[in-house]
Write a structure and sequence with these properties.
By secondary structure, the chain is an alpha/beta fold. Helix 16 crosses helix 20. The N and C termini lie far apart (about 45 Å).
Length: about 375
């Protein structure tokens, strides 16, 4: 059984740099810089100075109009994705990684209505049933008028509520929207990304080779301990894009291609070895205590103490969105307090009881300067 899983992972997962993906990741990071800084602080990580230099240079080179356009398409929530989901879909459904220039040409050839429909999906992906009101998404996404009516009647989740007005604007003027995002990508590529693309490629590919060696040495362990996922998740062809701009994190995206084949993309932070590797005892203690500074993370663990839960169950029980579940789960993954396992075609979060005991013991040692169990 172990050999079967290993062979499946080796067959389905490949590491390949995708320049087009790095382009839009970098644009999203700039548009959501404040959120990214908060996330980094939560993880006690510092953003790479070169990444910050990229942010600063981009803001200095872009006109005020271009920055407004960047925010229009990317600013809503880096972890949820909203209007920018359409761009990820356009890139990740290609069979092979694309250069930024090749992808922009591909995007220009895509019908405006199709791209806008993917924007709708991005904003409502975790509220799709309510949006559709019993209609079939495959039918709705081809009908701009019907999509507009449904979007008008349905508010998105609070995390992306600010995307509601811009989305209606895109639905009302799809061709104008196409001209806007096409111009934005061309300008951003010419003025900013082209100056950085080779250093970004080198940094990402150097790290990719190292992570690929780690993966090949023990595929299942890599997926569980570094990617923080259940190996059974990768039962379809999946590309790991090691991203310098992402810095750290695991973002899994799955799409159906035009041929109805399911494919996956993982945007894998270049510094994940620091984020998910061993930490000093004091740092572990600080992060362990930080984990419970947010009541929802404590409730998350108490929920799992009873039994494993899948994402939507947790969202319903805690009164938060599935995207918020993922956000809090990432923090708990960082401490190895939870793990994902596939059961009955769903991914369930499991509490790592032994790890919880270990962290409690480390906290006792650090806080009281004594070994656990000492009287």
């Amino acid at each position: 059984m172990a050999d079967t899983m290993k062979n499946t992972l080796l067959k389905n997962i490949k590491f390949a740099y995708n320049e087009a993906l790095e382009l839009i990741v970098s644009m999203g990071m700039i548009a959501n810089e404040e959120q990214i800084r908060t996330w980094a602080a939560d993880y006690k990580m510092e953003l790479d100075p070169h990444a910050l230099s990229y942010h600063d240079e981009a803001r200095s080179l872009l006109s005020p109009h271009s920055i407004r356009e960047l925010l229009f398409f990317f600013q809503y929530n880096f972890f949820h994705k909203a209007l920018d989901f359409a761009f990820y879909e356009s890139i990740c459904t290609c069979a092979e990684p694309l250069t930024a220039e090749a992808w922009i040409i591909r995007l220009e050839k895509s019908p405006a209505e199709k791209v806008v429909a993917e924007m709708v999906y991005g904003v409502y992906c975790d509220k799709l049933e309510e949006l559709l009101e019993g209609n079939d998404w495959e039918v709705v996404k081809k009908d701009i008028r019907l999509m507009t009516e449904l979007v008008t009647r349905t508010k998105p989740h609070p995390e992306v509520i600010n995307a509601h007005g811009p989305l209606l604007e895109c639905l009302k003027h799809p061709e104008d929207t196409k001209q806007r995002y096409t111009h934005l990508f061309k300008q951003f590529y010419r003025d900013v990304f082209s100056r950085w693309k080779e250093p970004l490629r080198k940094a990402s590919q150097d790290a990719s080779r190292w992570y690929e060696e780690m993966f090949l040495g023990n595929p299942e362990r890599f997926i569980r301990e570094v990617n923080k996922n259940e190996p059974a998740l990768y039962d379809v062809p999946t590309n790991f894009h090691v991203s310098f701009m992402t810095q750290f994190g695991n973002h899994c995206l799955f799409f159906n291609t035009a041929e109805s084949e399911r494919v996956g993309t993982v945007i894998f932070g270049v510094h994940n070895d620091l984020a998910f590797g061993p930490a000093a005892e004091r740092e572990k203690t600080e992060l362990f205590l930080k984990a419970f500074s947010d009541k929802r993370r404590l409730d998350f663990l108490l929920l799992l103490r009873k039994r494993p839960h899948y994402g939507q169950e947790i969202a319903t029980a805690l009164g938060i969105t599935p995207a918020a579940v993922t956000y809090h789960a990432n923090f708990l993954f960082f401490l190895d307090l939870i793990q994902l396992k596939r059961e009955d075609h769903r991914l369930y979060y499991h509490l790592q009881v032994d790890k919880l005991r270990e962290l409690l013991a480390i906290t006792t040692k650090v806080m009281l300067d004594e070994e656990p169990g000492r009287v």
